[in-house]
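Sequence only, no structure available. Ideas?
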Amino acid sequence: MILKIAFAQLLSGHTLQEQLEIGREACIAAKNKGADIILFPEMWSDGYYIPQDKKALEALAISADNPFVIAFKDMAKSLEIAIAFTFLEKHDPKPLNSVILFDRRGDKKLNYSKVHTCEFDLEKMLSPGDDFYVTELETAKGSIKVGSMICFDREFPESARILMLKGAELILAPNACPMEINRLSALRTRAYENMLAIATCNYPEGQPDCNGRSTLFDGVAWLRDEHGVRDMCVFEAPSDAGIYIAELDVDMLREYRQNEIMGAKYRRPDRYNALTNN
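Reply:
I predicted one. Tokens follow.
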């Protein structure tokens, strides 16, 4: 099974309606390019704008049943494409940085909120999410187990590890920051140590503090019938805005996971008490 993943590496608009229209065009373009899944950058509903005034922030937050959200649900069904879109989610006491994944029938399969919020910066205004989730996503090509982590989550090995332990084969990772060698290396490491694929969608250059370079790491570090190692980064976008398509060979990943040694195979959780006690 070869899944086509679209990255909506786009500049944001200035209103919720503009975000909806740009998003709609992106979904149509992704479908026309043959994508099975389209992924948006972090907090698409307002272009990752986080006012430090509580009332201003709450005015931007929307609920999961807002017409903006329902519009993406309807697009997923009408276009028959899975859509992972992101938004500032209304929540008490503080809003959440969230992603919702709709399948090609418009059914909500995942609603994840960023666990590792950047409390040292603007995201001190947000509440952290409460857990990591994995779902079975059915596409026209077949099913795949999908989880999500958002931006700063990638810096914590526990994020991807928990998703792997829950069965994830693919992690969808919305992003809003400069992607440079160290952050890209963190994504590579999470894919390598867990034998899973990670698709990261960033805003392009021109969006404040962002530079594109959306990526797909497929999690396959070597093949038994080929000499040497391979580059797990099977796609890296340029800095420019655009709808980019990357292909994930799910069958190759599954065979690799079955035969190789990383992931959960040789863990010793009984020796990891320091992780759970601190």
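The domain at 2-262 is CATH 3.60.110.10 (Nitrilase/N-carbamoyl-D-aminoacid amidohydrolase).
Hope that gets you unstuck.
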